[in-house]
Amino acid sequence: MFVEQCKNFFFLFLVFLISMWAVNYATDQDTEKSLVTKDHNAKYFAVSYSKIEMNEFGLADSKLTADFAANYNGDIGTELTNPEMIVYKKVAPPWVIRSKTGHVSADGNKIFMNGPVFIDRAEAEGVREVNIKTSNLRVLPERNYAETDDWAELVSGLDRISGVGMELFYQDPLYIKLLANVKGLHEY
Amino acid sequence: LEGDARQPVSIESNSGFYDDKKGVSIYTGEVIVIQGSMRMDADKVVVHMKNREIQKLVATGEPVKFKQTPEEGKEDVHGNALTAEYYPETQLLIMLKEAVVWQGKNSTASERIEYDRISEVVKAGDSGSADKRVHVILQPKNKASEQ
Protein backbone atom coordinates (compact mmCIF):
# COMPACT_ATOMS: atom_id res chain seq x y z
CA MET A 1 0.00 0.00 0.00
CA PHE A 2 2.77 2.37 1.09
CA VAL A 3 4.81 1.50 -2.03
CA GLU A 4 1.77 2.32 -4.19
CA GLN A 5 1.48 5.75 -2.59
CA CYS A 6 5.20 6.43 -3.12
CA LYS A 7 4.85 5.58 -6.80
CA ASN A 8 1.94 7.94 -7.23
CA PHE A 9 3.75 10.71 -5.38
CA PHE A 10 6.89 10.25 -7.54
CA PHE A 11 4.79 10.32 -10.73
CA LEU A 12 3.06 13.56 -9.68
CA PHE A 13 6.40 15.16 -8.80
CA LEU A 14 7.76 14.23 -12.27
CA VAL A 15 4.73 15.83 -13.98
CA PHE A 16 5.27 18.98 -11.87
CA LEU A 17 8.96 19.20 -12.96
CA ILE A 18 8.17 18.78 -16.67
CA SER A 19 5.44 21.40 -16.61
CA MET A 20 7.71 23.90 -14.81
CA TRP A 21 10.39 23.36 -17.49
CA ALA A 22 7.80 23.79 -20.25
CA VAL A 23 6.55 27.07 -18.77
CA ASN A 24 10.07 28.49 -18.52
CA TYR A 25 10.98 27.40 -22.05
CA ALA A 26 7.84 28.99 -23.52
CA THR A 27 8.41 32.37 -21.83
CA ASP A 28 12.05 32.51 -23.13
CA GLN A 29 10.79 32.09 -26.70
CA ASP A 30 8.28 34.91 -26.32
CA THR A 31 10.82 37.33 -24.89
CA GLU A 32 13.23 36.61 -27.77
CA LYS A 33 10.52 37.16 -30.30
CA SER A 34 9.43 40.40 -28.73
CA LEU A 35 13.07 41.53 -28.66
CA VAL A 36 13.38 40.95 -32.43
CA THR A 37 10.14 42.72 -33.25
CA LYS A 38 11.21 45.57 -31.05
CA ASP A 39 14.52 45.76 -33.01
CA HIS A 40 12.72 46.18 -36.35
CA ASN A 41 11.35 49.55 -35.38
CA ALA A 42 13.21 52.35 -37.18
CA LYS A 43 15.64 54.34 -35.10
CA TYR A 44 14.92 57.32 -37.35
CA PHE A 45 13.45 57.90 -40.80
CA ALA A 46 13.77 60.63 -43.42
CA VAL A 47 11.57 61.80 -46.29
CA SER A 48 13.36 63.07 -49.45
CA TYR A 49 16.61 61.60 -48.18
CA SER A 50 19.73 63.04 -49.79
CA LYS A 51 23.39 62.38 -49.09
CA ILE A 52 26.22 64.02 -51.08
CA GLU A 53 29.81 62.80 -50.88
CA MET A 54 32.44 65.41 -51.66
CA ASN A 55 36.02 64.87 -52.82
CA GLU A 56 39.14 66.55 -51.54
CA PHE A 57 38.59 69.50 -53.90
CA GLY A 58 35.19 70.22 -52.40
CA LEU A 59 33.39 68.95 -55.48
CA ALA A 60 30.51 66.47 -55.36
CA ASP A 61 31.71 62.93 -56.05
CA SER A 62 28.39 61.17 -55.72
CA LYS A 63 24.90 61.82 -54.48
CA LEU A 64 22.46 59.28 -53.04
CA THR A 65 18.78 60.25 -52.83
CA ALA A 66 15.63 58.33 -51.89
CA ASP A 67 11.96 59.18 -51.45
CA PHE A 68 12.06 57.56 -48.00
CA ALA A 69 14.86 56.22 -45.79
CA ALA A 70 14.52 54.37 -42.50
CA ASN A 71 17.52 53.53 -40.33
CA TYR A 72 17.42 50.52 -38.00
CA ASN A 73 19.52 49.32 -35.08
CA GLY A 74 21.94 46.46 -35.31
CA ASP A 75 23.18 45.25 -38.66
CA ILE A 76 20.08 46.10 -40.73
CA GLY A 77 21.34 49.54 -41.85
CA THR A 78 19.16 52.02 -43.78
CA GLU A 79 16.31 50.90 -46.01
CA LEU A 80 15.58 53.10 -49.03
CA THR A 81 12.55 53.61 -51.28
CA ASN A 82 13.22 54.64 -54.91
CA PRO A 83 16.93 55.13 -54.34
CA GLU A 84 18.92 56.99 -56.99
CA MET A 85 22.68 57.27 -57.00
CA ILE A 86 24.39 59.86 -59.18
CA VAL A 87 28.12 59.42 -59.82
CA TYR A 88 29.65 62.63 -61.12
CA LYS A 89 32.40 62.62 -63.71
CA LYS A 90 35.01 65.28 -64.41
CA VAL A 91 34.18 65.74 -68.09
CA ALA A 92 31.45 63.33 -69.15
CA PRO A 93 27.83 63.43 -67.93
CA PRO A 94 27.18 61.59 -64.63
CA TRP A 95 26.19 57.97 -64.29
CA VAL A 96 22.72 57.55 -62.75
CA ILE A 97 21.85 54.27 -60.96
CA ARG A 98 18.18 53.70 -60.02
CA SER A 99 16.04 50.95 -58.52
CA LYS A 100 12.73 50.60 -56.69
CA THR A 101 14.15 49.60 -53.31
CA GLY A 102 17.54 49.39 -51.76
CA HIS A 103 19.45 49.62 -48.54
CA VAL A 104 22.73 50.93 -47.18
CA SER A 105 24.69 48.49 -45.04
CA ALA A 106 25.06 49.31 -41.33
CA ASP A 107 28.71 50.35 -41.82
CA GLY A 108 27.70 52.54 -44.78
CA ASN A 109 30.24 50.94 -47.14
CA LYS A 110 27.81 49.06 -49.39
CA ILE A 111 24.64 50.13 -51.15
CA PHE A 112 22.31 47.35 -52.30
CA MET A 113 20.07 48.32 -55.21
CA ASN A 114 17.39 45.62 -55.12
CA GLY A 115 15.19 44.25 -57.92
CA PRO A 116 15.45 45.72 -61.43
CA VAL A 117 18.27 48.28 -61.70
CA PHE A 118 18.84 50.87 -64.43
CA ILE A 119 22.22 52.52 -65.01
CA ASP A 120 22.27 55.36 -67.52
CA ARG A 121 24.76 57.91 -68.90
CA ALA A 122 23.57 60.61 -71.28
CA GLU A 123 25.28 61.37 -74.55
CA ALA A 124 27.71 64.30 -74.76
CA GLU A 125 30.66 65.55 -76.73
CA GLY A 126 32.94 62.56 -77.32
CA VAL A 127 30.90 60.09 -75.27
CA ARG A 128 28.05 57.85 -76.28
CA GLU A 129 24.81 57.34 -74.47
CA VAL A 130 24.97 54.11 -72.46
CA ASN A 131 22.06 52.28 -70.83
CA ILE A 132 22.55 49.22 -68.65
CA LYS A 133 19.76 46.99 -67.37
CA THR A 134 20.40 44.49 -64.60
CA SER A 135 19.11 43.55 -61.15
CA ASN A 136 20.25 43.24 -57.53
CA LEU A 137 23.31 45.42 -57.82
CA ARG A 138 25.86 45.80 -54.99
CA VAL A 139 27.57 49.22 -55.09
CA LEU A 140 30.86 49.94 -53.30
CA PRO A 141 31.17 53.74 -53.62
CA GLU A 142 34.64 53.90 -52.08
CA ARG A 143 35.99 51.67 -54.82
CA ASN A 144 33.92 53.25 -57.63
CA TYR A 145 32.74 49.71 -58.23
CA ALA A 146 29.48 47.79 -58.54
CA GLU A 147 28.72 44.12 -59.20
CA THR A 148 25.85 41.69 -59.69
CA ASP A 149 25.50 37.95 -60.15
CA ASP A 150 22.43 38.47 -62.34
CA TRP A 151 21.97 38.99 -66.07
CA ALA A 152 23.03 42.39 -67.35
CA GLU A 153 22.71 44.11 -70.70
CA LEU A 154 24.50 47.20 -71.99
CA VAL A 155 23.07 49.12 -74.91
CA SER A 156 25.02 51.92 -76.58
CA GLY A 157 24.00 53.23 -79.96
CA LEU A 158 23.59 50.27 -82.29
CA ASP A 159 25.56 47.96 -80.02
CA ARG A 160 24.24 45.58 -77.42
CA ILE A 161 26.26 43.30 -75.15
CA SER A 162 24.80 41.10 -72.42
CA GLY A 163 25.95 38.40 -70.07
CA VAL A 164 25.37 36.75 -66.71
CA GLY A 165 27.31 38.36 -63.86
CA MET A 166 28.73 41.86 -64.24
CA GLU A 167 31.54 43.88 -62.68
CA LEU A 168 31.23 47.65 -63.28
CA PHE A 169 34.23 49.92 -62.63
CA TYR A 170 32.82 53.40 -62.93
CA GLN A 171 35.82 55.61 -62.32
CA ASP A 172 37.39 57.25 -65.42
CA PRO A 173 37.61 55.46 -67.81
CA LEU A 174 34.60 53.27 -67.12
CA TYR A 175 34.80 49.64 -68.00
CA ILE A 176 32.56 46.62 -67.57
CA LYS A 177 33.27 42.90 -67.31
CA LEU A 178 30.59 40.38 -68.16
CA LEU A 179 31.37 37.05 -66.60
CA ALA A 180 29.45 34.34 -68.51
CA ASN A 181 27.15 33.58 -71.46
CA VAL A 182 28.16 36.77 -73.23
CA LYS A 183 26.25 37.80 -76.35
CA GLY A 184 27.06 40.84 -78.47
CA LEU A 185 25.10 42.40 -81.33
CA HIS A 186 26.74 45.09 -83.41
CA GLU A 187 24.79 46.78 -86.19
CA TYR A 188 26.03 49.50 -88.48
CA LEU B 1 25.78 35.99 -99.99
CA GLU B 2 23.92 38.94 -101.48
CA GLY B 3 21.92 39.60 -98.31
CA ASP B 4 24.95 39.58 -96.00
CA ALA B 5 25.99 43.18 -96.61
CA ARG B 6 24.02 45.00 -93.91
CA GLN B 7 23.42 42.10 -91.57
CA PRO B 8 24.30 42.77 -87.90
CA VAL B 9 27.33 41.09 -86.48
CA SER B 10 26.38 38.79 -83.60
CA ILE B 11 29.01 37.49 -81.20
CA GLU B 12 28.90 34.87 -78.43
CA SER B 13 31.65 34.09 -75.91
CA ASN B 14 32.40 32.92 -72.38
CA SER B 15 33.22 36.39 -71.05
CA GLY B 16 33.16 39.98 -72.23
CA PHE B 17 34.69 43.36 -71.50
CA TYR B 18 33.53 46.85 -72.52
CA ASP B 19 35.80 49.89 -72.36
CA ASP B 20 33.69 53.03 -72.55
CA LYS B 21 36.52 55.45 -73.29
CA LYS B 22 38.16 53.51 -76.10
CA GLY B 23 34.82 52.30 -77.46
CA VAL B 24 36.16 48.74 -77.48
CA SER B 25 34.33 45.50 -76.68
CA ILE B 26 36.48 42.43 -76.04
CA TYR B 27 35.09 38.92 -76.17
CA THR B 28 37.14 36.00 -74.85
CA GLY B 29 36.69 32.23 -74.61
CA GLU B 30 35.13 30.11 -77.41
CA VAL B 31 34.15 33.20 -79.40
CA ILE B 32 31.72 32.74 -82.30
CA VAL B 33 31.15 35.59 -84.74
CA ILE B 34 28.26 35.32 -87.21
CA GLN B 35 27.26 37.73 -89.92
CA GLY B 36 24.79 36.45 -92.43
CA SER B 37 26.39 33.39 -94.02
CA MET B 38 29.84 34.03 -92.54
CA ARG B 39 30.99 32.39 -89.35
CA MET B 40 34.27 32.87 -87.50
CA ASP B 41 35.53 30.89 -84.47
CA ALA B 42 38.31 32.40 -82.36
CA ASP B 43 39.77 32.52 -78.85
CA LYS B 44 39.48 36.31 -78.61
CA VAL B 45 37.76 39.01 -80.62
CA VAL B 46 38.22 42.74 -80.15
CA VAL B 47 35.52 44.97 -81.66
CA HIS B 48 36.81 48.47 -82.45
CA MET B 49 34.25 51.26 -82.78
CA LYS B 50 34.67 54.57 -84.52
CA ASN B 51 32.07 57.33 -84.61
CA ARG B 52 29.62 54.95 -82.96
CA GLU B 53 29.95 52.25 -85.61
CA ILE B 54 32.01 49.12 -85.95
CA GLN B 55 35.29 49.95 -87.58
CA LYS B 56 36.82 46.46 -87.45
CA LEU B 57 36.95 43.17 -85.59
CA VAL B 58 40.34 41.65 -84.76
CA ALA B 59 40.20 37.93 -84.01
CA THR B 60 43.04 35.82 -82.66
CA GLY B 61 43.16 32.10 -82.10
CA GLU B 62 45.09 28.89 -82.53
CA PRO B 63 43.95 29.25 -85.30
CA VAL B 64 41.03 31.52 -86.10
CA LYS B 65 38.63 29.51 -88.29
CA PHE B 66 36.51 31.18 -90.95
CA LYS B 67 33.73 29.80 -93.12
CA GLN B 68 31.68 31.60 -95.74
CA THR B 69 28.83 30.29 -97.91
CA PRO B 70 29.04 31.98 -101.32
CA GLU B 71 26.18 31.83 -103.81
CA GLU B 72 23.81 28.86 -103.93
CA GLY B 73 25.36 25.74 -105.37
CA LYS B 74 28.97 26.88 -104.81
CA GLU B 75 31.18 25.18 -102.22
CA ASP B 76 31.88 26.93 -98.92
CA VAL B 77 35.03 29.01 -98.63
CA HIS B 78 37.12 28.10 -95.55
CA GLY B 79 40.05 29.91 -94.00
CA ASN B 80 42.46 29.56 -91.08
CA ALA B 81 44.96 32.04 -89.68
CA LEU B 82 46.46 33.07 -86.37
CA THR B 83 45.00 36.56 -86.73
CA ALA B 84 42.07 37.81 -88.77
CA GLU B 85 40.90 41.36 -89.25
CA TYR B 86 37.36 41.83 -90.51
CA TYR B 87 35.91 45.11 -91.80
CA PRO B 88 32.09 44.74 -91.89
CA GLU B 89 31.53 47.96 -93.83
CA THR B 90 33.59 46.75 -96.82
CA GLN B 91 33.15 43.02 -96.08
CA LEU B 92 36.91 42.61 -96.30
CA LEU B 93 38.64 39.85 -94.31
CA ILE B 94 42.42 40.03 -93.90
CA MET B 95 44.08 36.86 -92.60
CA LEU B 96 47.59 37.13 -91.20
CA LYS B 97 50.19 34.58 -90.10
CA GLU B 98 49.93 31.00 -91.33
CA ALA B 99 46.92 31.96 -93.41
CA VAL B 100 45.24 29.34 -95.59
CA VAL B 101 42.08 29.72 -97.68
CA TRP B 102 40.46 26.86 -99.52
CA GLN B 103 37.32 26.11 -101.52
CA GLY B 104 36.81 22.53 -102.49
CA LYS B 105 40.26 21.27 -103.50
CA ASN B 106 41.70 24.67 -104.44
CA SER B 107 43.74 26.35 -101.74
CA THR B 108 46.00 29.34 -101.17
CA ALA B 109 48.50 29.68 -98.35
CA SER B 110 50.53 32.72 -97.37
CA GLU B 111 51.45 34.93 -94.44
CA ARG B 112 48.84 37.42 -95.60
CA ILE B 113 45.61 36.71 -97.48
CA GLU B 114 42.83 39.17 -98.23
CA TYR B 115 39.39 37.78 -98.95
CA ASP B 116 36.74 40.11 -100.33
CA ARG B 117 33.42 38.61 -99.36
CA ILE B 118 31.45 40.62 -101.90
CA SER B 119 33.48 39.88 -105.00
CA GLU B 120 34.77 36.58 -103.54
CA VAL B 121 38.27 37.54 -104.68
CA VAL B 122 41.28 36.14 -102.82
CA LYS B 123 44.46 38.24 -102.84
CA ALA B 124 47.48 36.57 -101.29
CA GLY B 125 50.95 37.76 -100.43
CA ASP B 126 52.19 41.25 -99.77
CA SER B 127 53.63 43.37 -102.58
CA GLY B 128 55.55 45.31 -99.95
CA SER B 129 57.82 42.48 -98.87
CA ALA B 130 59.28 39.46 -100.64
CA ASP B 131 58.91 37.11 -97.71
CA LYS B 132 55.13 36.84 -98.04
CA ARG B 133 55.43 33.90 -100.44
CA VAL B 134 52.23 32.46 -101.86
CA HIS B 135 51.47 28.78 -102.30
CA VAL B 136 48.51 28.03 -104.56
CA ILE B 137 47.04 24.64 -105.39
CA LEU B 138 44.49 24.51 -108.18
CA GLN B 139 43.11 21.06 -108.75
CA PRO B 140 42.43 20.29 -112.43
CA LYS B 141 38.84 19.49 -113.12
CA ASN B 142 38.25 15.76 -113.95
CA LYS B 143 38.18 15.10 -117.72
CA ALA B 144 34.95 13.02 -117.27
CA SER B 145 33.12 15.89 -115.53
CA GLU B 146 33.97 18.26 -118.38
CA GLN B 147 32.43 16.18 -121.25
Intertermini distance of chain B: 30 Å
C-alpha Rg of chain B, in Å? Answer: 16 Å
Q: How many strands, which pairing sense, and closed or not: the largest β-sheet of chain A?
A: 10 strands, antiparallel
Instruction: Please count the helical segments of chain A.
Output: 1
Structural class of chain B: mainly beta
Element-level helix/strand string of chain B: EEEEEEEEEEH
Approximate strand percentage of chain B: over 45%
Strand coverage percent of chain A = over 45%
CATH class of chain A reads Mainly Beta
Distance between the termini of chain A: 105 Å
Q: Compute the gyration radius of chain A: what is it?
A: 27 Å
Q: How would the global form of chain A be characterised?
A: elongated
- Quickly give the structural class of chain A: alpha+beta
Structure in words:
The complex is a heterodimer of chains A (188) and B (147). Chain A has one helix at 2-39; strands spanning 44-54, 60-72, 77-81, 84-87, 95-104, 111-121, 130-140, 145-156, 159-169, 175-186. Chain A is an alpha+beta fold and 188 residues long. Chain A has a single domain, classed as Lipopolysaccharide (LPS) transport protein A like domain (lipopolysaccharide transport protein A fold), CATH 2.60.450. Chain A is elongated and about 105 Å long. Chain A starts with a helix and ends with a strand. Chain B has 1 helix and 10 strands. In chain B, strand 2 and strand 3 form a beta hairpin. The longest helix of chain B has 4 residues, at 143-146. Classes of the chains: A alpha+beta (188), B mainly beta (147). Chains A and B meet through strand 9 and strand 10 of A and strand 1 and strand 2 of B.
